[in-house]
């Protein structure tokens, strides 16, 4: 039974020089954020750190202190720069051990070709479990039921999250609605603030865009209750019209 | 004259609930990373934080302690959730003031329609300068020559960076080369490690992909010297062939 009053939070640590060099565009943050939202958990912070033991361990410990859940992406493969398991074990003050079930899986998959590099993928922080992955088969690593070490490759990350769906304690999912209007932000800033003050617990974000030489804005209203959301949307629509903004159906 | 021995670093703070909710995919990290690389500066860490004063200020102070330069994106517009200027001023222990040049720009642009919300965009931490933006005209905010507060909308962020090109002290740009091969990571992990050990200062990242039912891998070699890079690339190609990997010209 979810406790409706508690806001459950998660932090994400994105591990990888390829993101910080600009070579790869991180896609896991947005995906995890939406997945968490369905589970009733708020993604409350993200750190992107290089493939360095000390940096990863520090970020892990900061996130453990700050959030209910900690997710990591990247650095759990077989190569020398895959050091997430070691860094997390270090942060937790635990040894790294070979997980027997993971070793069996690798043994079945590789047979005689199971080498030392491949065996690296069976290493976990002591006490950890595997996260089943119904999509690609490659498991992630779950520690203490609150930390989740996942792959960096989005397709595999998404499989690991699919296997975790419905298993975490969370609160009420956030519901949102987008209202678009042809207007600059500056013309309606007061209206946004007024509606937000009238409706405690409701957040309104404004995201400008330019199209066909005109300026428009999408206003995203977020709440934890459908009725509250609907009322806030109605108030905002009215306030926008009063401020002279021309509505666009459903936003852009 | 760049000091070739010093590695110049930057941190980025991405500010915005829209990124953490998964609604918007951050595009500024990858762009800034590549821009910094040309300037001879390494993007060494990124934090994504919500639109909260305390969280932004804490991230700013962490980044100031850790890196040579600090960049922020988001939260410098006219609406109530645009609090980056206030949070940075708070982190620096300085008041927020109206920048006379910015006020003049807004006055010319809006004329009689200059309202309180629009005037918010002329507010800066005391002592700050404007960052000219040759692309869209909207200036960013430069503090002490080391902190750069930029817009969240990528087109505008990129304009602000264009205006800053060539103005920061940096070291040697990182050069890189990608070698692709049809092979799994696990088959060549030892080869990668060996080449990295043979060539101090060279980093090799491996990024697997799946195509047409085959597994391949791109190996990205990074160095600060063309000759060192070329030698490392040659060694890696040889090591990959010895490990039985089938080369793909120029990577995928």
Question: Would you kindly provide a written description of the structure presented here, covering whatever features stand out?
Answer:
Chains A, B: This is Molybdopterin binding motif protein. Two copies of one chain form a homodimer. The first copy, chain A, has helices at 17-20, 28-38, 53-66, 84-92, 100-110, 116-119, 154-164, 185-198, 226-242; strands at residues 8-15, 41-49, 69-73, 96-98, 123-125, 129-131, 140-143, 147-150, 175-182, 203-211, 214-223, 246-248. Chain A has 252 residues and is of the alpha/beta class. Chain A folds into two domains: 8-164, 3-Layer(aba) Sandwich (Molybdenum Cofactor Biosythetic Enzyme, Chain A), CATH 3.40.980; 175-248, Alpha-Beta Plaits (2-Layer Sandwich). In chain A, the strands form three sheets. Chain A has a six-stranded mixed beta sheet, with helices on both faces. In chain A, helix 2 (28-38) runs parallel beside helix 7, helix 3 crosses helix 4 (84-92) and helix 8 runs antiparallel to helix 9 (226-242). The longest helix of chain A has 17 residues, at 226-242. The radius of gyration of chain A is 22 Å and the shape is elongated. The model of chain A has no long low-confidence stretch (mean pLDDT 90). Chains A and B meet through helix 1, helix 2, strand 2, helix 6 and helix 8 of A and helix 1, helix 2, strand 2, helix 6 and helix 8 of B. Strand 2 of chain A pairs antiparallel with strand 2 (41-49) of chain B, so a sheet runs across the interface.
């Amino acid at each position: 039974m979810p406790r409706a009053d508690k806001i459950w939070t998660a932090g994400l640590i994105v591990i990888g020089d390829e993101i910080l060099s600009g070579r790869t565009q991180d896609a896991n943050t947005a995906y995890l954020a939406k997945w968490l939202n369905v589970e009733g958990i708020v993604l409350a912070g993200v750190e992107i750190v290089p493939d360095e033991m000390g940096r990863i361990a520090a970020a892990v410990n900061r996130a453990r202190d700050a959030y209910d859940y900690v997710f990591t992406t990247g650095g759990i493969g077989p190569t020398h720069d895959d050091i997430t398991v070691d860094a997390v074990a270090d942060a937790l003050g635990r040894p790294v051990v070979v997980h027997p079930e993971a070793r069996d899986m690798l043994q079945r998959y590789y047979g005689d070709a199971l080498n030392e590099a491949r065996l690296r993928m069976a290493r976990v922080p002591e006490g950890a479990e595997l996260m089943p992955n119904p999509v690609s088969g490659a498991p992630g690593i779950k520690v203490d039921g609150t930390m989740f070490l996942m792959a960096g490759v989005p397709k595999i990350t998404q499989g690991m999250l699919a296997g975790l769906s419905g298993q975490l304690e969370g609160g009420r999912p956030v519901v949102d609605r987008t209202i678009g209007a042809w207007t600059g932000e500056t013309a309606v800033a007061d209206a946004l603030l007024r509606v937000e003050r009238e409706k405690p617990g409701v957040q309104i974000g404004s995201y400008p865009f330019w199209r066909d030489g005109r300026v428009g804005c999408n206003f995203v209203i977020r709440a934890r209750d459908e009725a509250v959301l609907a009322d806030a949307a109605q108030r905002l629509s009215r306030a926008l019209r009063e401020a002279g903004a021309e509505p666009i159906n459903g936003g852009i």
